[in-house]
Structure prediction request, 84 residues.
Amino acid sequence: MSNPPPASPSGSSGRGRGWAIAGILSGLLAVVLVPILFGPLGVLFGIVGYVKGSRRAGIAAVVVGVLGFVVGIALTAFLLSAFG
Prediction:
């Protein structure tokens, strides 16, 4: 029987960290590109990162994904009303 790997002091595992970083990047892209696609994708990647062991970064990715979605939709609505 093998022991699980020790938890890192920062509370993030190497397995979930990549997913969480992808979630943060997707959330940031949601502000400037396609918020209806990248916002939920950021949230999904953040949840996967959280489940795989990267707790703090996973939560950060979920928050950035939601904020990216909301800000991206608001910015799109503003730009369409101002220039549309």
Summary: The helical segments are 14-32, 35-51, 55-83. The chain has a mean pLDDT of 88.
